[in-house]
Amino acid sequence: MAERPLLARGVAQEMRCVLHWFSGWAPPQRQRFLRDLLAKAVPGKLCPLLEGLEGLSLSGAPAPPPSLFQCQLRLWDQWFRGWSEPERNHFLARLEQVDPDFAAHFYCQLAATAGQE
User: Fold this and answer.
1) What are the φ/ψ torsions at residue 9 (nearest 5 degrees)?
2) Is there a contact between 46 and 39 (Cβ–Cβ < 8 Å)?
3) What does each C-alpha distance from 34 to 8, 28, 97, 98 come to in angstroms?
4) Cα end-to-end span (Å), the chain
5) What range does the record give for the signal peptide (predicted)?
6) For residue 18, which of 57, 77, 82, 103 sits 20 to 30 Å off, Cα-Cα?
């Protein structure tokens, strides 16, 4: 049996929270999460900056408040940056358990980035 990494209580709660959110996301939200996950896995090969620019407005009109999904992604981003490499790998393993098809698609997309400059 493979050893599970010891997770700090807060990290384990963060992971449970993200996985709970994930289970309620619609397919377009899961696709957005997939892009974010890929950008974190291979930061030098993808351009998340362009996605960040999508939300900017030049009209001067006040921006609408963020959606619940956008708030969840912001928290996910903050938490993920604070996790160690073993914790991140543990999260991916948990994601595989929750949605094997999504995880397989993630790994396929990740493999497709190999060799890109």
Assistant:
1) -55, -45
2) yes
3) 25, 10, 16, 14
4) 38
5) none
6) 57
User: Which residue's entry shows tokens 């497709």?
Assistant: 112
Distance CA 51, CA 59 (A): 18
Q: Distance between CA 23 and CA 44 in Å, rounded?
A: 29
How far apart, in whole angstroms, are the C-alpha atoms of residue 39 and residue 46?
6
* Closest CA relative to residue 30, chosen from 65, 64, 72: 72
4 sits in which H/E element: none
Q: Where are the domains of the chain?
A: 13-41+66-112
- Under DSSP, the state recorded for 42 is S
User: How would you write the pLDDT of the chain (117 residues) with one tens digit per residue?
Assistant: 444 556 777 999 999 999 999 999 999 999 999 999 998 887 665 444 445 545 555 566 777 888 999 999 999 999 999 999 999 999 999 999 999 999 999 999 988 877 654
